[in-house]
Amino acid sequence: MRTATDGLATGLAVLSTVLVVAPLVAIFVYLIYKGASSLSLAFFTQVPKPEGETGGGMANAIVGSAVLLGLASLIGVPVGISGGIFLAEFGRGTKLANAVRFTADVLNGVPSIVMGIAVYSLIVYQQKHFSAFSGGVALGIMMIPTVTRTTEEMLLMVPHAVREAALALGVPNWRSVLSITVKTASPGIITGCMLAFARVAGETAPLIFTALGNSNWSVNLNEPIAALPLQIYTYAISPYDDLHRLAWAGALVLIVLIVAAVSLVRYVTSRGVLKGAS
Amino acid sequence: MVLCALSIFGIVALIATELVVRSHLAWSQFGFGFFFKAFIDPDSKLPMYWDPVNGHFSALPFVYGTLVSSFLALLLAVPLAIGVAVFLTEMCPRMLRAPLAFVTELLAAIPSVIYGLWAVFVLVPLLREHVNPWLIKLLGWTGFFNDDNPTGLGFVAAGVILAIMILPIISSLTREVMNAVPGSQREAVLALGATRWEMIRVGVLRNARIGIVGAIILGLGRALGETMAVTMVIGNTPQIQRSLLASGSSMASVIANEYAEASGDLHLSALTEIGLALFIVTIIVNALARLLVWAVTRGAPAQVH
Description:
The complex is a heterodimer. Chain A has a single domain (61-240, 253-274), classed as MetI-like (MetI-like fold). In chain A, 74% of the residues lie in helices and 0% in strands. Chain A has ten helices and no strands. Chain B has one domain (17-43, 51-297): MetI-like fold, CATH 1.10.3720. Chain B has a two-stranded antiparallel sheet. In chain B, strands 3-4 form a two-stranded antiparallel sheet. In chain B, helix 4 packs across helix 6 (155-179), helix 6 crosses helix 8 and helix 7 runs antiparallel to helix 8 (196-225). At the A-B interface, helix 1, helix 3, helix 4, helix 5 and helix 6 of A face helix 1, helix 3, helix 4, helix 5 and helix 6 of B.
């Protein structure tokens, strides 16, 4: 009886794993198949055609996403990295650092659409028009907690001996932190930033009423701008087959970006100085 | 650097003040009743929930939609997620562990708009053609599965896609919590002659239960605020229907749909108030979940996820 229960439980666990992994793999394979068969040179070089016409691409959305993400990184990366350095090096163990860490984790769980409303109310409502600038700010703010936490985690993986060696040479603490610890962890920090970058690259909700989207060329920060995830959303719910194909191709581009970032993080954290240092 | 760390508090304060200021109009007009009262039309005696043209706003159908789709998602995801975590920590051959962990990590990083895209073109047709007729035949008598919606869009579709999206989060946190249970606990139970399942049940799950509840609550937090995928499959009609196959609308989806073209200050303000409610609820849910997970993993070594 007991062995039977054991067998049953094992069977159920294996079954649930299969049940989970199978559809997930299916999503992936389907996405790659659909995306690859829809990708073409035009996708990267042309702007969308008017609805109902065939052809066209998402060049404006790719450039728009690049503009938005550049702006977001300008805000999110420096603030996030400095925050992470504070948490791991200067504030370690203090009440303040714990409170910041906790708030960052909680902030990570706040729906991105709420961030969109806040930025709408802060910038779009005052300026009375949608703009690329407001979209970039929304994404940048979203990057801060993620970058802060990954930077901290990467710094904590640097062995204590490295810090102690620097301090033993009589180097002041701030120099030891900046040119020894941060430098040692820099591959990790950079890939952590890439991960945050890849995550916000797929964010749609905060852009709907900040960047708004644009079916023409625009790199003007003061005007609505197109973005890849926004375009995927509008195309997916449109009735035209041709736009659906573009949406799949766009999804594939986003996925490639994300897979690259996630794999890189795994590679960096599993080798060299950072390996097993915690 | 302290300043940058403090910016995290700044962001929370900024969101809170902006939302409160911008939702003031709706708050002063409707008060708390906004979330549970509906305007009753004097002619037809039918409740009017959301009527921007005449200025009647009630968040009731959206609260309902969010709760129904989230709990449906939890119902589907929790047993599977715990099964996966048990398999990965206690039974899995070492060779499979790293690739499976990698896949879960990847899935957590896929943007929700892509899940939505997949759901629109694969999941919804699948439900419409194969699953829904079967549900109606089998469970139609309960009243929860009536056929009055031929599109396939609705609470069931939203619940299924949400379940797929929160599975990786719940299972990876559950795994983390189970890994934090000391090996000596397992050995002690095994030494008493327990089978592997008894060891998992008594030695691991019982010790990790608080953290597992934390992981589930965190998954709930994600499900409550999930926007794009739900917006794409829930059908977006502000109604309350008993049938789970009917289309509805969630708090996040109504914001996504209407905010950019809100028809006046009161409409905008009402939508912002829904956002404020979402903000407060997710903050509470996430804080609670983090505290529970921390309570269990505090002693364990730091890990990179």
